[in-house]
Specification:
Blueprint lengths: L11 H61 L16 H17 L3 E7 L1 H5 L4 E10 L1 H12 L4 E11 L5 E10 L2
Antiparallel strand pairs: 1-2, 2-4, 3-4
Amino acid sequence: MKKGKTGALVPAQSLVLLALCAAGIVGFLLLVILPADRASAELDREIAALTARVEEQKVLAPVFKTLFEKARSPVKAGGPAPVRAKLSRDDIAALPKRLQEMAAAHRLAVREVVPDINTLTDASGRLSMKIQAQGRFADLRGFLLDVGALPFFDGLEEVDVRGVEGGGEEATLKVWLARE
């Protein structure tokens, strides 16, 4: 086995086996350990995000519970329900001015009242209208109640409230109205 100065101290076959073992270990690291480590890091991030959501839900649970109990309580009779009617074509033309007057009564400035043209021509008997108003959030409630009391009000699809520069909020409402 051992040869002189010109010979190898380790046989060639042992060197080949050593190289194969080293390649196997490196391959195992690259193909198994590193992807598993990346997957573990990804799972850790997801766990942290879910933990944060659970903590948020724990904080909001009492608020939800009280609001849910209020929603379950019977509604106080505030008066008779309005008689429902349908908008005529002439009423549709006058509606933006009427909505602006209602909003002004609640200290809201209507920036835009846009009817959805597609709902004017379909056979659904309903008109979709987008209303953008600016003012204080507290004043929005009264305006929504007045809109809901309109005899041709059919439903509220969307309410989007955003803060604006200079204070106040901007609300975008999408309402459905009954039409002829």
